[in-house]
Amino acid sequence: MHIETPQKDIAKGDKEVFEFLTDLKNFEKLMPDNIDKFEVINEDRFLFALKGMPQIVLQRQTQTPNSQIVLGAASDKLPFTLTADITAVSDSESKVSLSFEGQFNAMMAMMIKHPITNFMGTLSENLTKI
Description:
Elements: E1 2-4, E2 8-10, H1 14-22, H2 27-30, E3 35-42, E4 45-50, E5 56-64, E6 68-73, E7 80-90, E8 93-102, H3 106-127
Antiparallel strand pairs: 1-8, 2-8, 3-4, 4-5, 5-6, 6-7, 7-8
Organism: Zobellia amurskyensis
Protein name: SRPBCC family protein
């Protein structure tokens, strides 16, 4: 299952956006209002839970300075990645798109597609406010 957000204009340069996203505690600022729990486990992992949903642990998998950060589920039960692609526009402006890639059976994909799409949209929208 693949979900991608439209590119959003960010009033920060690519280096600043990259540094913001590589500091995992900043993801709490991007979370939806219905967040129930957020905890940084270490410099490469954090967990979060939205009301009525199970906890998810995300782990930094790869990063390319100033252009991409890939986080992945720490559990094999729900294998997915969340990727932020950053494109420089100028020293003080960049564009960011988020993409979600997951390996789910058809039933699971049908159940989570709408909530994941909403979640990704919220992360993307909140990123414009940093």
